[in-house]
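Hi V.,

You were right to ask for the full record rather than a summary. Here it is.
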Amino acid sequence: MTETTEEIRSLFSRLADLYDKHLVSFNLGSFPDIETQTLERKEIFDTLLKKDGIDNTLWQSEFMGLVKKNQSLREKAEQEKKSVQKKIKALSKGKDLLSAYRPSGYMKNSSKVMNIKE
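Predicted structure:
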């Protein structure tokens, strides 16, 4: 029974480490491969579900911690998705494209040429 409990604890810690690693990948500035990350977590979680003799209190305490981490991962993914959609929308309107080539105060400070016809 103690071997099973230790094995379950190690699976929980591996799953928690994966969640932490995947959360950090959002903050690194590169867009993480969400599908691969989900498959990695699903493999370990499926292994956990197949184990017999899981102590209910251990299961509930560890599971609730993982649910919170999963929720924060979901929120990060949604924020990233909204950010990408906003950037695409702004780019399609030409806003970001123009600001990338000239500074923000360029139009206010540039000299204007007047065309005077005689």
